[in-house]
């Protein structure tokens, strides 16, 4: 049965429109976050109602647990090999479909899965659509080894890009560090605005202690933005 009461109608509209793109026999990547969770529930409802045969890989342990609890069988990305489509949420979407992701600290696996997909579809509510990326703090997954050194190198890279002076904060849950599914730590870069996202992406990727940043540039093929009235717009 499809979910309805208590679910954000904008997220539900986006999720339903994305799940409508799913065809029998597809190999799917399942994203992480609250919107992706709505999508996973819709997908499970369609599979139960229509008996679709799908193969699914999850972008986080949380999504794998949710999907499994709803009767979807999760396989590893390597078992499936290549995916037809990944459906995921985002923290920001700009007019070129460049994204900030990682609000749920899952952007490393999300990027690995999206990069192994023919198509990446983002599901989001209108609050995620921006003219320029950067109001949402940019998540960067970093190794615990040399953590403070990596933070210094990130600050230096930001200075060189004239983005210096902004907070580079370790993400905490209460007073404990957030640990990702891969056992790493998260730094959130409070930049306000990212005028040249490709330059920042290159600079971060060049720092050895950076495992992956949350800029998804040129990866998203379609963004489905749900609205509270149940309609959607596609970017
Ligand atoms: C997790 C993500 C999420 O997709 C992103 O944070 C959006 O989450 P939500 O739908 O809960 O707003 O990138 O790492």
From TrEMBL:
Pathway: Carbohydrate degradation; pentose phosphate pathway; D-ribose 5-phosphate from D-ribulose 5-phosphate (non-oxidative stage): step 1/1. Its EC number is 5.3.1.6. This is Ribose-5-phosphate isomerase A. The lineage of its organism: Bacteria, Pseudomonadati, Pseudomonadota, Alphaproteobacteria, Rhodobacterales. It comes from Paracoccus rhizosphaerae. It comes from the Bacteria. Coiled coil: none annotated. It catalyses: aldehydo-D-ribose 5-phosphate = D-ribulose 5-phosphate. Transmembrane segments: none annotated. Keywords: Isomerase. Substrate binds at residues 32-35, 88-91, 101-104, 128. The keyword Isomerase applies. Gene3D superfamilies: 3.30.70.260, 3.40.50.1360. The keyword Signal does not apply. InterPro entries: NagB/RpiA_transferase-like, Ribose5P_isomerase_typA_subgr, Ribose5P_isomerase_type_A. One of its GO terms (molecular function) is ribose-5-phosphate isomerase activity. Catalyzes the reversible conversion of ribose-5-phosphate to ribulose 5-phosphate. The active site is at 110 (proton acceptor).
